[in-house]
C-alpha cells in the first residue's frame, strides 16, 4: 500500500464494482497529488470548502453529534482486513543451520507459573518454590532499576552533548558579533580618513583658483589704470596746446589793437555790419543755451535709465542664483526618488523571498507535526499496553493475597475447632477417636470441595475484573485520544490562522510597496516635467540677460556720444562768448573814439584793464570747465572701478559656483560610492543580524527543550520516589503479613507438637525464615543506599545544569543588550547618511559661508545625553550620572562614555512597553531637594520591557519580607497625617488638624482615607478596594536632568515615542520582577501633605488594570478617577 501511495500518479485507480461520486473521486485525487497543488496547502478552510463536505445532514460544527454513514467492522486495533493482502516474496530465503549446542536464550518464554494452594502449609518442598518466586521478583526489580539507570544515563549524555553544542554555538555567535564590530570600526575609520583627505585637497584647490582669479583681476585693473593715465596725459597735453594757442591769440590781438587806429575808419564802416552780426549771434547764443539745457536733461534721463537697467540686471542675477538653487534642489530630490525607487524594488524582492521562506517553513512545520503525531500515537499505544499489563498484574497479585489470607483464616479456624473438639474428646470420649477421625476426614473432603468451588467463582470474578479494567483502559485511552485530537485541531487552526494573517500582512506590505513605487514613479515623472520647465525658464532668463546687456551697451554708447556732443557744445559756447565780448569791446571803443578822441589813452588803459578782467574771467571759466571735466572724469573712474569690482565679484562668484558644482558632483559621486559600500555592509550586517536572531531562536528552542527534558527527569525522579515509597509500603505490609503468618504457623505447629508429641522441624524452619528475612532486609538497605546515591548524583547533575543554564541566560541577555546597542549605532549611522544626502547642498555655503547654519545631524527619533539615576538603599535621594541614548525602538542606559563606545549597556527599556512620562511634584518626592524637583521626571513602563544585567538586578532591594502597609479588603493602607483639610470616607469626623492631626490611613491603590480607629474597632464599616492591579506588571523610574529645559525636552521627546495603545502584558513574564524603587521608602509624616495625594511615593502609579466592582457601582463612584490621576500627575 505504501508503494502504491507513493506511486499515486500511476497506481491510483477506482474499482468499477463500487459506485463513487465525482466529489469523492476529486477529493481523493486532490489529496494524492504533489504538495505544490495538494488540497489544504493554504489551511483547513480549503478542505472544508470542498463540495464533498457540503450536505444537508451535518456541518463541521455538529459533525461529532451525527452518526457516521459507514462504520467498518474492526475486530481489534491491528485489524487490516480492509486493505489488500501483501503478496509473499517468491524468492528463496537464506536459512542458517541452527547450532546443535544447548544455549539457554533459545528457549521460548511461555509465561509465569501460579500456585492455587497455600504453599506455606506444606513442608520443605514448598519453601524452595517460595524462594524461587522471591528471587525472580528481586531479579525483575533489579532489571527495572538497571534499565531506569541506563535511560537516565543516556538522557544525561544527550543533555551534555546538547550543552556542548550550545556552548559552541554561543562561541560562534560571540565571534560573529566581534567580527561585525571590528568591520564597522574599520569602515568608520576609513570613511573619516577619506573625508579628511578629500576636504584638504578641495580646500587647497579652491585657494589656488581664488589666487589665480585675483591675479587675473589685478592685471586687468593695472591695464585699465595705465590706460586711464595715458588718457589723462593726452588730455593735459591737449589743454596745454589750447593754452598756447590762446596766448598766441592774445598776442595777435595786442598787435591788432595797435593797428586798430589805422583800421578805425574801416571799423566805423563795419559797425553796422557788426551790430547785425551781434544780434544774429545773440539769437544763436540763446539757441545754444536751450540746446545745452535739453542736453543736460537728456543726460539726467539717461543716468536714471542706466540706474534702472543696473537694478534690473541685479534682480536678474538674483533670480538666476535662485533658479540655480532650485535646480540643484530638484536634482537632489530626483536622485533621492531614484534611490527610494531602488530601495522599494529591493524591499519587494526581500518580501517575495520572505514569502517563499514562510511557505517553506509552513511545509516543514506540517511535516514535522505529522511526524510528531505519529510518534505520539505510537508512544500512547505503548503506554496503554503497559497500563493493561500493570492492571493485570495488580489484579493477579490482589487475588493471590486475598486467596492466601482467606485460606489462612479458614485453616486457623478449623485448627482451633479441631483442637477444642480433640481436647473435649480426649477428656470425655477417648474411646471414640477413630470414629471422630473418620468424621473429620469426611468434613475435610467437603471443605476441599467447597474451596475448589470457591476458587472457581473467584477465578471468574478475576476474569470479570480484568475485562472491566481493560474496558476502563480503553475508555481512558479513547478519551485521551479525543482530547489530544481536540488540542491538535485547536493548535493546527491557530497555526493556520497565524500563517494566514502573516501571509495577508506580507501581501498587504507588498501591495503598499507597489503603490509607493507607483507614486514614486509619478513623482519622478512630475519632477522631470518640472525640470524641463525650469530649464526652459532658465533659457528664457539667459536670453533676457543677453538682451539687457545689449541694451546696456547701447545706452553706454549713447551716453558717450552725448558726452562728446556736450563737450563740443561747451567749446562752441565759450568761443561765441569770447567773440561776443570782443564785439562788445570793439563797439565801445569805436563809440568812445568817435565821441572823445582826446581821451584815447584813458580808453586804452581802460581797455587794457578790461582785457585783464576778461582774461581773468576767461581763466576762471576755463578753471571751472576743467574742474567740471575732472569731476566728470572722477565719477567716470569711480563708476569704472565699481564696475571692475562688480566684475571681480562676478568672476569670484562664477569661480565659486563652478568650484561648488564640481565639488558637489565629486561629493555626490563619493557619497554614492560610500552609500553603496555602506548599504552592502548594512546588508551583510542585516544578514548577520538575521542569522544571529535565528541562532538565538534556535538556542532558545534548545534551552526550552533542555528545560523540558530537565522537567521530565524531575518527573521521572519523582515517579521513582513514589515507586520507592509504594514498594516500601508493599514490603512492610508483606513483612507484617509474613510475620503474622509465621507466628500463627509456629503456634499451630507448637500446638500440634504438644498434641502429637512435638517435632523439632518447625523451629529450624522458623530460624531459616528469620535468616532469610534478615538477608532481605540487608539487601533492601543496600538497594536504598544505591538509590540514594543515584538520586544525589542526579540532583547534583541537575543543579550543575541549572547553573550552566543560568550562565547561558546571562550571556544571552548580555548579547541581546549588545545587539540592541549595535542596532542603535547602525540606526545612527543610517540617519547620518540620510542627513548627509539630504542636506548636502546646505552644508556648503554659496556666498561667504555666513548665511548657512548647520544642524546637529540627528533626527527627531534619536536623543542622547547625561541623566542622573537615583542611588539604591538610601533614605535620602542620591543621584548617579548615567549616559542615556533614546533610539527609535530602545532606551539604552550606559555607566559611562567608555561603555557607550564599547556598546555595553547595563539596562535597556523597550519604547513599545512605555506607559507614561510626566514631571514629578513635591508630594511625589518630598524627600528630594526643592531645587531638584523641577528637573526630575518619571517614566512608567511594563516590567517585561526591561532588560538588566545580573549585577544591577542583584543590587536592587529584595528585603520586603515585612510589608510597610496594612492589608484589608484589598486595600493597602499607609499610616499618614493630614495637616490640610481632608475628610474621612467612613465617618463625618474631621481627618485633619494643623498642629496635632489624628492618625489616619490612606489606601495607596484607590486613595480611600479613614481614621486609624476604624481599622482597630470597626473594620466592617470600611468598603472594599475597587482598584485591581498587579504590582509586578509595571515599574517606575525617576530621572534627574541638568536643567528644566532639558527635562521638558526629554519629556516631550519620550511622549512622542510612547505608543498610543497601552502595551499588552503577559502575566507570567512579570512574576519574578523585584519591587519598584518607590517601595523602599518607609511611610513618614510629610512636611507638606495634600488631601488629594498620598505623602509617600505611592505605587498606585503602576496601576494598569482598573476595574469597577459591585461596591463601586452601588456607591456611584466613577471608575475613571485613578486613571485620570495617573495621567494628570
From TrEMBL:
Q: Which cofactor does it need?
A: Mg(2+)
- EC id: 2.7.11.1
Q: Of which family is this protein a member?
A: Belongs to the protein kinase superfamily. AGC Ser/Thr protein kinase family.
> Compositional bias (Basic and acidic residues) at which positions?
134-145
Spell out the residue ranges making up region: Disordered: 123-145, 1055-1129
Q: Which InterPro entries match?
A: AGC-kinase_C, C1-like_sf, HR1_rho-bd, Kinase-like_dom_sf, MRCK/ROCK_PH, PH-like_dom_sf, PH_domain, PKC_DAG/PE
Say yes or no: keyword Ion transport present.
Answer: no
> Protein name, please?
non-specific serine/threonine protein kinase
Q: Specify the AGC-kinase C-terminal domain's residue ranges.
A: 54-124
Q: Where in the cell is it found?
A: Cell membrane; Cytoplasm, Cytoskeleton; Endomembrane system
- Kindly list the GO CC terms recorded for this protein: centrosome; cytoplasm; endomembrane system; plasma membrane
> What is the top EC class of this enzyme, as a single word?
transferase
Give the compositionally biased regions (Low complexity): 1109-1121
Q: Which domain of life is it from?
A: Eukaryota
Q: Does the keyword Ribosomal protein apply?
A: no
Q: Which organism is it from?
A: Nothobranchius furzeri
Membrane topology is:
Peripheral membrane protein
In this chain the RhoBD domain maps to 686-754
Q: Where is the Phorbol-ester/DAG-type domain?
A: 970-1025
Query: Which biological process annotations from GO are given for this protein?
Result: actomyosin structure organization; cortical actin cytoskeleton organization; embryonic morphogenesis; mitotic cytokinesis; regulation of cell junction assembly; Rho protein signal transduction
User: PH domain location, by residue?
Assistant: 860-1059
Q: Where is the composition biased (Polar residues)?
A: 1087-1101
| Record PANTHER family | MYOTONIC DYSTROPHY S/T KINASE-RELATED, RHO-ASSOCIATED PROTEIN KINASE 2
Could you tell me which residue ranges the REM-1 domain spans? 204-280
The residues forming a coiled coil are 531-628, 661-730
Provide this UniProt record's keywords sorted from A to Z. Answer: ATP-binding, Cell membrane, Coiled coil, Cytoplasm, Cytoskeleton, Kinase, Magnesium, Membrane, Metal-binding, Nucleotide-binding, Phosphoprotein, Serine/threonine-protein kinase, Transferase, Zinc, Zinc-finger
**Which is an annotated GO molecular function term of this record?**
zinc ion binding
Amino acid at each position: 500500500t505504501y508503494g502504491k501511495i507513493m506511486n499515486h500518479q500511476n497506481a491510483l485507480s477506482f474499482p468499477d464494482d463500487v459506485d463513487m461520486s465525482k466529489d469523492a473521486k476529486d477529493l481523493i485525487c486532490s489529496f494524492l497529488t504533489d504538495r505544490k497543488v495538494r488540497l489544504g496547502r493554504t489551511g483547513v478552510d480549503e478542505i472544508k470548502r470542498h463540495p464533498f463536505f457540503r450536505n444537508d445532514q451535518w456541518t463541521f460544527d455538529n459533525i461529532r453529534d451525527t452518526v457516521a454513514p459507514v462504520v467498518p467492522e474492526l475486530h481489534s486495533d491491528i485489524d487490516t482486513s480492509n486493505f489488500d493482502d501483501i503478496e509473499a516474496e517468491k524468492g528463496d530465503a537464506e536459512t542458517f543451520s541452527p547450532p546443535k549446542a544447548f544455549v539457554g536464550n533459545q528457549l521460548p518464554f511461555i509465561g509465569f507459573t501460579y500456585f492455587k494452594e497455600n504453599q506455606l502449609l506444606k513442608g520443605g518442598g514448598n519453601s524452595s518454590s517460595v524462594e524461587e518466586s522471591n528471587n525472580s521478583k528481586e531479579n525483575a526489580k533489579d532489571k527495572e532499576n538497571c534499565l531506569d539507570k541506563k535511560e537516565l544515563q543516556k538522557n544525561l549524555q544527550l543533555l551534555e552533548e546538547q550543552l556542548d553544542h550550545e556552548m559552541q554555538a554561543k562561541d560562534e555567535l560571540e565571534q560573529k558579533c566581534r567580527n561585525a564590530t571590528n568591520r564597522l570600526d574599520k569602515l568608520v575609520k576609513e570613511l573619516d580618513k577619506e573625508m579628511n583627505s578629500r576636504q584638504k585637497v578641495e580646500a587647497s584647490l579652491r585657494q589656488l583658483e581664488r589666487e589665480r582669479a585675483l591675479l587675473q583681476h589685478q592685471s586687468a585693473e593695472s591695464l585699465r589704470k595705465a590706460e586711464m593715465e595715458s588718457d589723462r596725459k593726452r588730455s593735459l597735453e591737449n589743454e596745454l596746446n589750447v593754452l598756447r594757442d590762446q596766448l598766441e591769440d592774445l598776442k595777435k590781438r595786442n598787435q591788432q589793437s595797435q593797428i586798430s587806429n589805422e583800421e578805425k575808419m574801416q571799423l566805423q564802416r563795419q559797425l553796422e555790419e557788426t551790430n547785425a552780426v551781434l544780434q544774429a549771434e545773440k539769437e544763436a547764443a540763446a539757441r545754444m543755451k536751450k540746446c545745452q539745457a535739453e542736453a543736460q536733461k537728456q543726460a539726467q534721463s539717461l543716468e536714471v535709465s542706466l540706474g534702472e537697467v543696473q537694478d534690473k540686471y541685479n534682480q536678474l542675477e538674483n533670480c538666476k542664483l535662485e533658479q540655480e538653487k532650485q535646480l540643484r534642489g530638484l536634482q537632489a530630490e530626483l536622485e533621492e526618488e531614484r534611490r527610494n525607487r531602488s530601495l522599494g524594488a529591493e524591499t519587494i524582492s526581500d518580501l517575495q523571498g520572505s514569502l517563499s521562506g514562510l511557505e517553506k517553513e509552513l511545509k516543514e512545520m506540517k511535516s514535522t507535526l505529522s511526524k510528531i503525531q505519529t510518534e505520539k500515537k505510537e508512544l500512547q499505544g505503548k503506554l496503554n499496553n503497559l497500563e493493561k499489563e500493570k492492571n493485570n498484574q495488580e489484579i493477579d497479585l490482589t487475588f493471590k493475597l486475598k486467596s492466601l489470607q482467606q485460606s489462612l483464616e479458614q485453616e486457623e479456624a478449623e485448627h482451633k475447632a479441631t483442637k477444642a473438639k480433640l481436647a473435649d474428646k480426649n477428656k470425655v470420649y477417648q474411646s471414640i477417636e477413630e470414629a471422630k477421625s473418620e468424621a473429620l476426614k469426611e468434613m475435610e473432603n467437603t471443605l476441599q470441595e467447597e474451596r475448589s468451588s470457591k476458587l472457581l467463582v473467584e477465578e471468574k470474578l478475576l476474569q470479570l475484573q480484568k475485562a472491566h479494567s481493560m474496558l476502563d483502559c480503553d475508555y481512558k485511552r479513547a478519551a485521551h485520544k479525543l482530547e489530544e485530537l481536540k488540542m491538535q485541531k485547536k493548535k493546527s487552526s491557530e497555526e493556520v490562522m497565524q500563517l494566514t494573517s502573516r501571509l495577508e500582512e506580507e501581501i498587504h506590505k507588498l501591495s503598499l510597496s507597489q503603490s509607493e513605487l507607483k507614486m514614486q514613479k509619478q513623482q519622478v515623472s512630475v519632477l522631470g516635467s518640472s525640470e524641463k520647465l525650469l530649464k526652459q525658464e532658465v533659457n528664457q532668463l539667459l536670453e533676457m540677460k543677453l538682451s539687457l546687456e545689449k541694451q546696456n551697451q547701447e545706452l553706454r554708447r549713447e551716453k558717450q556720444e552725448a558726452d562728446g556732443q556736450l563737450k563740443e557744445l561747451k567749446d562752441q559756447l565759450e568761443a561765441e562768448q569770447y567773440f561776443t565780448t570782443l564785439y562788445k569791446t570793439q563797439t565801445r571803443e569805436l563809440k568812445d573814439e568817435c565821441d572823445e578822441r582826446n581821451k584815447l589813452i584813458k580808453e586804452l588803459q581802460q581797455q587794457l584793464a578790461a582785457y585783464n578782467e576778461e582774461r581773468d574771467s576767461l581763466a576762471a571759466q576755463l578753471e571751472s570747465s576743467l574742474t567740471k571735466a575732472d569731476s566728470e572724469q572722477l565719477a567716470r573712474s569711480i563708476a569704472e572701478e565699481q564696475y571692475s569690482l562688480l566684475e571681480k565679484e562676478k568672476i569670484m562668484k562664477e569661480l565659486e559656483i563652478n568650484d561648488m558644482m564640481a565639488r558637489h558632483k565629486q561629493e555626490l559621486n563619493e557619497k554614492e560610492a560610500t552609500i553603496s559600500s555602506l548599504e552592502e555592509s548594512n546588508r551583510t550586517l542585516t544578514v548577520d543580524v538575521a542569522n544571529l536572531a535565528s541562532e538565538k531562536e534556535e538556542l532558545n528552542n534548545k534551552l526550552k527543550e533542555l528545560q523540558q527534558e530537565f522537567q521530565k527527569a524531575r518527573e521521572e525522579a519523582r515517579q521513582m520516589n513514589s515507586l520507592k515509597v509504594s514498594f516500601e509500603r508493599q514490603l512492610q505490609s508483606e513483612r507484617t503479613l509474613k510475620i503474622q503468618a509465621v507466628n500463627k504457623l509456629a503456634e499451630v505447629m507448637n500446638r500440634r507438637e504438644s498434641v502429637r508429641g512435638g517435632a523439632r522441624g518447625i523451629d529450624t524452619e522458623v530460624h531459616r525464615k528469620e535468616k532469610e528475612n534478615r538477608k532481605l532486609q540487608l539487601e533492601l538497605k543496600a538497594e536504598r543506599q544505591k538509590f540514594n546515591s543515584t538520586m544525589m548524583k542526579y540532583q547534583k547533575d541537575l543543579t550543575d545544569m541549572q547553573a550552566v543554564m543560568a550562565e547561558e541566560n546571562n550571556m544571552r541577555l548580555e548579547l541581546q543588550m549588545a545587539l540592541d546597542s549595535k542596532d542603535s549605532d547602525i540606526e545612527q549611522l543610517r540617519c547620518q547618511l540620510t542627513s548627509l544626502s539630504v542636506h548636502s547642498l546646505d552644508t556648503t555655503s554659496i556666498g561667504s559661508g555666513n548665511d548657512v547654519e548647520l544642524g546637529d545631524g540627528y533626527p527627531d527619533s534619536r536623543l542622547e545625553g547625561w541623566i542622573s539615576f537615583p542611588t539604591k538603599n538610601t533614605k535620602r535621594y542620591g543621584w548617579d550620572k548615567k549616559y542615556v541614548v533614546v533610539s527609535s525602538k530602545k532606551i539604552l542606559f550606559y555607566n559611562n562614555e567608555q561603555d557607550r563606545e564599547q556598546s555595553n549597556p547595563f539596562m535597556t527599556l523597550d519604547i513599545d512597553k512605555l506607559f507614561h512620562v510626566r514631571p514629578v511634584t513635591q508630594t511625589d518626592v518630598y524627600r528630594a531637594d526643592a531645587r531638584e524637583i523641577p528637573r526630575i521626571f518619571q517614566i512608567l513602563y511594563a516590567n517585561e520591557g526591561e532588560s538588566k544585567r545580573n549585577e544591577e538586578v542583584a543590587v536592587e532591594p529584595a528585603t520586603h519580607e515585612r510589608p510597610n502597609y496594612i492589608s484589608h479588603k484589598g486595600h493597602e493602607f499607609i499610616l499618614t497625617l493630614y495637616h490640610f483639610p481632608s475628610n474621612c470616607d467612613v465617618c463625618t469626623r474631621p481627618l485633619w488638624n494643623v498642629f496635632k492631626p489624628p492618625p489616619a490611613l490612606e489606601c495607596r491603590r484607590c486613595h480611600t482615607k479613614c481614621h486609624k480607629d476604624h481599622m482597630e474597632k470597626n473594620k466592617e464599616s470600611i468598603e472594599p478596594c475597587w482598584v485591581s492591579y498587579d504590582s509586578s506588571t509595571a515599574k517606575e523610574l525617576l530621572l534627574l536632568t541638568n536643567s528644566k529645559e532639558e527635562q521638558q525636552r526629554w519629556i516631550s521627546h519620550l511622549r512622542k515615542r510612547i505608543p498610543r495603545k497601552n502595551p499588552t502584558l503577559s502575566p507570567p513574564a512579570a512574576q519574578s520582577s523585584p519591587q519598584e524603587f518607590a517601595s523602599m521608602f518607609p511611610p513618614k509624616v510629610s512636611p507638606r501633605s495634600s488631601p488629594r495625594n498620598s505623602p509617600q511615593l505611592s505605587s498606585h502609579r503602576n496601576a494598569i488594570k482598573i476595574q469597577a466592582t459591585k461596591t463601586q457601582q452601588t456607591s456611584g463612584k466613577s471608575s475613571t478617577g485613578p486613571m485620570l490621576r495617573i495621567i494628570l500627575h
